User: Fold this.
Amino acid sequence: EIFGWAMFDFANSSYTTVVITALYAPFFIEHVVPAGHPARNSLWSLAMALSTAAALLLSPFIGAVCDFSGRKKRFLLTSAVLCAGSTALLALAGPGDVVLAVGLIIVSNAAFMVGESLCASFLPEIATPKTMARVSALGWGLGYFGGLASLLLARAVIGSSPDTAAFVRGNRLAMVATGVFFLAAATPTLLFVKNRSRPAPGFENAGWARLAATGVSELRRTFARLGEYRTLARFLLAFTVYMAGMDVVVKFVGIYARGVLSFSTGQLVTLFLVLQISAAA
Assistant:
């Protein structure tokens, strides 16, 4: 079961490595956004900001619904399908299809971040306080190898043709390959991770409308009681600011390496292979 749980990190790292960090981000700037567009980098920033805002709003709401419905594993797998599916659909976004690409990035990145939260919520169920750090590190470390494997797959699909049309076609097909990789690698999670959560009393047969209303109510109650947990609130605020700074680096390093340092696709892949291996260690 621990292996199945860790494999979700292996699976979803394909998305953040190939799409958000290494390959699709510079491809979006250079080939999806029309040449000379005055807001090329800003469009990527907009997609990142809106997807992060969506995840920040949805995660506590979905968490509350999971608590009452007992369907945590179903939500986890739904987030995986949504992220992988919208990643594969990026293949439809050719040069000039900015609105479609931005929309799919918002959906996929928000689903990825919600899935991260849901995946983490299983950790206390499969580990003891004594083993929790070790089990967590296994999942996190295995995730980097998932990023490495998916990066090599995407590079093979893109190929090394100097022809621009072939390069664009290869990048679009690589999105399909990444989506398929995500779902295939998440299969052990589907098979081995158990759903131990149970519906709250009185919610055994609750419909989605009642669950959604309860989720909103629970969310309001949580924020109303936040003053009772000032240390936790300060920690979450500091963590959010810290991670925002980290995210800027992670989500723009591919664009920077390509646009400022003039890295080729091959050099980008080499850079991230080194980063994945050292990060896993």
In short: Residues 85 and 279 are 27 Å apart (CA to CA). The mean pLDDT is 92. The chain has twelve helices and no strands. Residues 40-69 form the longest helix (30 residues).
